Structures are given as C-alpha cells and as structure tokens.
Amino acid sequence: MRTWAAKIFNGITLLGLGGVLIAFFINGRIDQYLHPQFRLWELAGGIGFCVAGAIYLVTKKSMDCCVDGQCIHSNPRSPIRAIMALGVITVPLVAGAVLSKDSYDQQAILNRGFVQDASGLPLRNVAKDTTPAKDPNQPVIPSEALGGDKDENSMEPPLPQDGSGNTASQNPAGQDSKDDGSEQYLPRAEDGNIALEVSDLLYSQTEESLRKLFSGKTIEVVGQYLPGADKSEFKIVRMFIWCCAADARPISVPVKTQGPVEIADMSWIKVIGQPEFEPNGDRTKVVLKAAQVQPTDPPAEAMLY
After folding, report:
1. Which of 11, 62, 214, 291 has the most beta carbons within 10 angstroms of its beta carbon?
2. In sequence order, what are the residues at sequence separation of 6 or more whose Cβ sits closer than 8 angstroms to the Cβ of residue 82?
3. pTM, 2 dp
4. Are both 29 and 122 inside the same structural domain?
C-alpha cells in the first residue's frame, strides 16, 4: 500500500509539471516568459514530463536497487516523501500558473532598473541587421538604403529605382531632396504612421543612419505608461527579454507632451509624435515629442527580443 501510494504521488508530480508546461504553450502564455527560439523546447520538456509520469504509473518496479545485476540495498518508497515532492514542486507551480497575472507591476519594473541606451541591448550591425519589419509583409530596410556599408562622407546615399530598374531622378517634383527612398521600407501602422519599437529608438541613439531615417518623421510607438517627475513628461516602457522572464529588463524612452495626460500607471498606450535627438555629452539622447497619447490594447507580443 505504501509503495502504491508513493508511486501515485510521484506520477502525479511528473504529470503536473508536464501539464503546466504544455498548457502554457497551447494557450500562448509562454510568450510572456520565454524567447521564441526556446518555446518549442519548453513544449518538448512538457511532453517529456507527461510521458515519464505515465510510464512511471503503469510500470511495476522492483523494491531492490540493483546495479550491474547485483542488488545492493532495498529501495524504500515513502508516501510522505512523495507527498512532500508534490507539495514543493507541483502545487506551487500549478498555483502560480492559475494566479499569475502574466505581467510586471510598476514596483517590479522599478526594482529591475531601466535600460535607457543601446549599450544595454544586444549588439547589432547596421550593415547586416537592419530595422526589422513588424509585419512579415512589410519589406526590411536594405543595408544599402541605410548606408550602413558605405562611408557617408565620401559617397552619396543610393537612389531609389523605378519599376523598370532605372535610377529615379535625384529630385523629382514634389519630393523632398533629403528623401533617399529608404522611408518606403519602414513598417507602417494601420493609420499610415511609421510604427517603431522602443528598442528602435534606443538603437538610433548610437546609429547615425537610423537618426537620419527617423528624424522629421511622424512615428507611433506602443508601450506602457510610467509617470515622470513632471506632469508633462513620462516614460514609455517595454520589457526586453534575452532568454526568459528571469533576465527581462525594462527599456524606456522619455516622452514630452504639451500638457499633462491622464493615464493610469503601467497601462498600455500608443504615442504618436516625432523623435528629437539631443546632445548628451559625447552621446546622443532621443526624446519623443508627443502630439497624441492614446490608450491602446497590448500588442500580440508584449515582450521585445
């Protein structure tokens, strides 16, 4: 009876672990906790736990602990130990899965500290890793359009081509002479504004090609509202994940408005405005000058990667 009880509780522990991992993958909650490249491994781990638990329950094991055909000692099975394992491992995990809000509150974000410049983000090479499109149907900005592989002091930016492959006129009627055609590759929101992420603006602080591309453009950025010291200033915040929720760090960009805004702390907002780049010692600081601040729904991917 003791062996049977221990076996049942140990099997439930394994099945509970696997069930939570599989449920998180199926309902999409794992998106809030894990980088996309690891999510299939999480699913595989959950399936593995469930298979191991099922095998554990249906197989009959010997009471002896044997190595190389020689039985060394009896292998006691205590239901108390099995219950303790269930209570320490599975019960807290299931309770956390049921009660978790899948989000960071304001205090948790403040405790983790902000990343406010690109030095705290993964390195990127403009010539090889240009601004990604937020929609798979949106074209990615070629490195040649950004000028990342050219000496901008010795070479003019490339000109866009027309449908026949011929180089377009350098200054066609009605087109700004500063427009090199790269704006067409920027991702667009439904209302036609350029859709950027907080991370894009942070990278632009160190990449002159991005600053030239974003300057003077009307952009919109989605993030969470965090009040500043002044009522006409606040931070727009996103969580950036390198691997999983354990290493997630808040990244933010300061926003200036023409007057105070009435927004609940940590609620999701959409800011429409223009980025301005200000000298900050030997560096450049980006500030988003907001024309509109609107409540909005959380994006499909609440985390940035």
Report:
1. 214
2. 5, 6, 7, 8, 9, 10, 13
3. 0.65
4. no
